Amino acid sequence: MLRETRAKALTLATTLAVVALAAAFAGLRNLPREVDRRPGHGPGPAPAGAPGLPAERAAAGRAAFERLRCAMCHSIAGRGNPANPLDGVGARLDADELRAWTLGTGPAADELPEMIAEMKAGAAADPALDALLDLLGSLR
Ligand code: HEC
User: Fold this and answer.
1) Which amino acid residue places its CA nearest to atom 10 of ligand 1?
2) What's the pLDDT tens digit per position in 4-25?
3) C-alpha to C-alpha distance for 118 and 123, rounded to whole angstroms
4) Residue 17 C-alpha from the chain's centroid
């Protein structure tokens, strides 16, 4: 009886471990890996898609996007996790909405799972947060 319970617990633990590993690999697979220095080919979002934004501002925004690991869950121009593309987000959301969804606050806090909202909250401390928001706003 005890042995049977143990066996069941072990089966459950193994299943959970496999599922967790599969999820982890599925996420990792979508992260930019190779370092390719050609324009538009490096890690992180492609340089394209920042019209009207000074190059330095766009670069600072992209650096923050990488630093804050937004690509774990989002893609820009095909880079990052394709599950939640941010292409065109600047046309869909206004500046306040972009800020709320980036930081998981306000209306976004009500819609996002709590854990994700908490992960997003860390972006508030980034010195280039405003550049990141400008970059998102330029994605039209
Ligand atoms: C752990 C996963 C996760 C991380 C990390 C994450 N987000 Fe999100 N984000 C989501 C989910 C889930 C949604 C809601 C689904 C959607 O709208 O794409 C969302 C929504 C958004 C939206 C609204 C998109 C839309 O089309 O309405 C923006 C903007 C956004 N996130 C920006 C960011 C930025 C910038 C970062 C990095 C600082 C970031 N997110 C990090 C999961 C994440």
Assistant:
1) 73
2) 777 766 665 655 555 554 555 5
3) 10
4) 24
